[in-house]
Amino acid sequence: MSRNRYKQNTYYIEQCPITKKKSRRRELPVNGVRLQLAKVIRENGVSVIVGETGSGKSTQIPQICYNEGLIGSGLLAVTQPRRVAAITLARHVALEMNANLGEVPC
Known about the structure:
The chain is mostly helical. It has one domain (about 20-40, about 55-105). Helix content is about 50%, strand content about 0%. The relative contact order is 0.11.
């Protein structure tokens, strides 16, 4: 068989949006300091976390808290300057955690 025939029968499967998001979220700067963040949050009553836009503060830190068992009552508040931003963030985190909006994942 010719080489061209193989090329015609080759199919490329693109990553689904969720897989792309999971691989992108691993690259966020906040993930490089997950354990340190969890320790700081665990050891202090109040923690102020400062980072660049797009570093994963709003989307990843709630998940770090959840995964590390730092959310005693099962509720965590994350504030945003605009209602639309808050709703978008909540949807984004729910999608990443494979949960329904407003529910705590199992």
